[in-house]
């Protein structure tokens, strides 16, 4: 009897296989690599943000297969009799020029098998083959060419996801928030592609560990540094130059990465004989730093930072803005199943504006500073159950504006009241594989937000403008607090080995708000916390999709539909002023928003020809009782149709060509439709809010790259030349529309279109050794 009881117990004994998946050449952890078991169909795991995986299986002999896009598939037979560590190094696949031939039955199908939907993952190698504006490869520009994402306008780095505003996107760089991701007033983003390892955009199905924004999460991870050998890469272009250095601290144990980029238009200004041009300053720079060190078999430490700034001006005045972020992370393995990451976070976004003219001399400065702490856990119970839980807290410091006049200036000193806030969250999520075909992930996030003093809060009469009283709050005294639950749910049903249906539901709460009257995200816009007159924004989104892969994951196809409802959307009274307004609460309005649409995408990821084509149909509107007679109106960034074509063709080992073509319905605008005279003055009569459309936007970009790999040249480094042409057929896309009296017929009003770019060629030399 004892033998009968002990045998099944032994047969069911579970053993844990865990380890890291890394790049063989650099030692970088690979995010999202698939670890599967050939003998157990549907059993596997994906590596986390640090390349770690854990699988708990019954005792036995298994063939472990590890795959990652762009790398040769790795397989190893193991005898699993006790807990085992398996650290795997994948080698880049250099057979990309050959036609894809299916020689085995291994199915990767990560697009189908993963729980992720409404997401877009991009590799930096893919980004670098795309045509670039002025030769600068840009993460944000690439994101703008994916379904469900709209651009703010020509050349801008602001983006809108499924009907949300630019402030409704949470942008994280190594877990630190980036509040303004633009350089040169939005023409470029702050993300230097040479320093980036992984880019992932979540438009829906956002994991429970993330919150604070309504529409999307853009998660960007920096390179960790080469732990095998010294390496350097960089480039010299028509606009900027860049250099990245990587090296081991201790081989296979620790490494560092330093990456810098700077433009140099200001250097050429100094060569001009025109004093007006000679004294101009216009440049930006970036500096990315990262280091990591393995303290022991269960502990690893990471430290990373970003510092960037834009400077523009002349002898009359100047303005500048910049970001500084820093993270300190500690990975710890309690055991083979429990992984934790603790992160200290710092983020500072500041800007300043000034005049040097004696009578108008002033300096205006503003800051938003975050100090944060996160503690995240992942418990790999077994292949059918995975738990994630954790807590996070952030202290926000808002310094909206301080104006200091010069000694002879007629300006008075102005200082808007600063505000502090405390934000916290706790979450729990569970991924549960009910069967080989059906998997669900459900979670709950609880968030808390409190605006705290020191500060003064004004009370107003029914007109919303006349002050009737005020209340003073002391340091750290709670002024206003909000909290709420944010449920998350995702489900996946695999119809076949290469197709699946997925669905998701998100509730998101946003406690920080960007106040801006402009369409694009400008550096001088004002961030404010939720307070008694600004309630938290809340969004509920549901989405469903069909995903299908072909020819061993060579082709990916997807179709998704979504619906999003948003409460407490901020708008402004007509002719309101946000800039340096000490009574901003008197111009704010609240309303509701809806957004719905359908997104289609077909993507080819392997072979000599790669890229994607996507189409989005969408509709976004707002309803604000005090605007447009209380009727719904389209948002400024509502675009009914959007098409993106992105392609790269590898002619041979040396030559490749790339092309992008984009099309979008013109943005919605308000236009004058008539005029009337009153007491000798002429006044315009406007259409309904955003009742007209700008002309449709479309553009073709081209790129040619000439590679000189060391395998062909016999040199110790790789190099390449890249020629890109932005707006190849010189489409004059409308950046804005203004109105004026016709010179020949003053009684008539004419529309004037402003556009930014014609054809812009750029040449860049790149190297890597």
UniProtKB/TrEMBL annotation:
Pfam families: CarbopepD_reg_2, Plug, TonB_dep_Rec_b-barrel. InterPro entries: Beta-barrel_TonB (IPR000531), Beta-barrel_TonB_sf (IPR036942), CarboxyPept-like_regulatory (IPR008969), Plug_dom (IPR012910), Plug_dom_sf (IPR037066), TonB-dep_rcpt-like (IPR039426). It comes from the Bacteria. Gene3D superfamilies: Carboxypeptidase-like, regulatory domain, TonB-dependent receptor, beta-barrel domain, TonB-dependent receptor, plug domain. Keywords: Cell outer membrane, Membrane, Receptor, Signal, TonB box, Transmembrane, Transmembrane beta strand, Transport. It is found in: Cell outer membrane. Residues 285-727 form the TonB-dependent receptor-like beta-barrel domain. Residues 123-212 form the TonB-dependent receptor plug domain. Its main location: membrane. It is a multi-pass membrane protein. PROSITE patterns: TONB_DEPENDENT_REC_3. SUPFAM superfamilies: Carboxypeptidase regulatory domain-like, Porins. PANTHER family: HEMOGLOBIN AND HEMOGLOBIN-HAPTOGLOBIN-BINDING PROTEIN 1-RELATED, TONB-DEPENDENT OUTER MEMBRANE RECEPTOR. Belongs to the TonB-dependent receptor family. This is TonB-dependent receptor domain-containing protein. The lineage of its organism: Bacteria, Pseudomonadati, Bacteroidota, Cytophagia, Cytophagales.
């Amino acid at each position: 009897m004892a033998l009968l009881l002990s045998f099944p117990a032994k047969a069911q004994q579970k053993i844990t296989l865990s380890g890291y998946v890394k790049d063989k050449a650099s030692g970088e952890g690979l995010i999202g690599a698939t670890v599967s078991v050939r003998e157990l169909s549907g059993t596997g795991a994906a590596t986390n943000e640090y390349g770690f995986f854990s699988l708990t299986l019954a005792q036995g002999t298994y063939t472990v297969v590890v795959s990652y896009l762009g790398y040769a598939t790795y397989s190893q037979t193991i005898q699993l009799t006790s807990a085992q560590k398996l650290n795997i190094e994948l080698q880049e696949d250099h057979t990309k020029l050959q036609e894809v031939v299916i020689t085995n039955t291994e199915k990767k199908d990560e697009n189908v098998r993963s729980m992720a939907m409404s997401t877009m993952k991009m590799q930096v190698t893919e980004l670098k083959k795309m045509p670039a504006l002025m030769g600068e490869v840009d993460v944000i520009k690439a994101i703008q060419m994916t379904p469900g994402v709209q651009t703010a306008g020509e050349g801008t780095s602001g983006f809108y996801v499924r009907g949300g505003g630019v402030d409704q996107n949470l942008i994280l760089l190594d877990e630190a928030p980036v509040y303004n991701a633009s350089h040169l007033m939005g023409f470029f983003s702050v993300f230097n592609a040479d320093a980036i390892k992984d880019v992932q955009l979540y438009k829906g199905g956002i994991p429970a560990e993330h919150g604070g924004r309504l529409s999307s999460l853009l998660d960007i991870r920096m390179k960790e540094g080469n732990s095998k050998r010294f390496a350097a890469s960089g480039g010299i272009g028509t606009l900027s130059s860049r250099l990245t250095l990587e090296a081991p601290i201790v081989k296979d144990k620790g490494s560092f990465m330093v990456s810098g980029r700077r433009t140099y238009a200001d250097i050429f200004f100094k060569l001009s004989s025109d004093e007006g041009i000679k004294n101009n300053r216009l440049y930006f720079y970036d500096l990315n730093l990262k280091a990591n060190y393995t303290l022991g078999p269960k502990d690893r430490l990471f430290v990373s930072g970003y510092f960037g700034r834009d400077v523009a001006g002349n002898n009359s005045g100047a303005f500048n803005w910049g970001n500084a972020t820093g993270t300190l992370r500690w990975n710890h393995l309690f055991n083979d199943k429990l992984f934790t990451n603790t992160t200290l976070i710092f983020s500072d976004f500041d800007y300043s504006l000034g005049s040097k003219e004696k009578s108008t001399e002033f300096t205006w400065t503003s800051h938003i500073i975050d100090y944060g702490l996160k503690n995240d856990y992942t418990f790999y119970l077994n292949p059918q159950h995975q738990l994630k839980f954790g807590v996070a807290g952030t202290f926000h410091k808002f310094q909206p504006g301080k104006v200091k006049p010069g000694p002879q200036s007629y300006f008075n000193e102005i200082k808007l009241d600063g505000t502090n806030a405390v934000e916290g969250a706790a979450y729990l999520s569970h991924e549960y594989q009910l069967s080989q075909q059906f998997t669900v992930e459900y979670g709950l996030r609880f968030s808390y937000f409190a605006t705290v003093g020191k500060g003064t809060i004004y009370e107003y009469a029914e007109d919303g403008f006349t002050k009737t009283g005020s209340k003073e709050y002391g340091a750290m005294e709670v002024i206003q607090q909000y909290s709420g639950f944010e449920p998350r749910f995702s489900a996946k049903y695999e119809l076949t080995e290469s197709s699946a249906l997925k669905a998701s539901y998100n509730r998101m709460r946003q406690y920080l708000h960007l106040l801006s009257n402009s369409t694009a995200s400008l550096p001088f816009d004002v961030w404010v916390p939720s307070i008694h007159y600004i309630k938290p924004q809340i969004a509920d989104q549901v989405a469903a999709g069909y995903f299908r892969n072909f020819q061993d994951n060579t082709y990916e196809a997807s179709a998704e539909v979504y619906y999003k409802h948003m409460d407490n959307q901020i708008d402004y009274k007509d002719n309101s002023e946000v800039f340096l307004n000490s009574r901003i609460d008197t111009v704010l309005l609240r309303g509701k928003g809806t957004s719905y649409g359908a997104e289609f995408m077909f993507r080819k990821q392997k072979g000599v020809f790669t890229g994607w084509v996507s189409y989005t149909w969408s509709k976004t509107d707002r309803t604000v009782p005090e605007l447009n007679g209380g009727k719904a109106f389209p948002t400024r960034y509502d675009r009914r149709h959007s098409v993106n074509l992105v392609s790269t063709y590898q002619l041979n080992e040396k030559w490749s060509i790339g092309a992008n073509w984009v099309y979008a319905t013109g943005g919605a605008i308000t236009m004058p439709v008539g005029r009337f005279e009153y007491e000798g003055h002429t006044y315009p009569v406007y259409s309904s809010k955003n009742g007209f459309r700008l002309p449709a936007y479309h553009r073709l970009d081209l790129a040619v790259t000439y590679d000189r790999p060391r395998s062909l040249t016999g040199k110790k480094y790789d190099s390449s030349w890249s020629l890109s042409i932005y707006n190849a057929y010189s489409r004059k896309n409308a950046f804005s529309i203004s109105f004026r009296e016709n010179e020949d017929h003053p009684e008539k009003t004419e529309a004037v279109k402003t556009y930014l770019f014609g054809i812009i060629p750029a040449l860049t030399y790149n190297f890597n050794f």
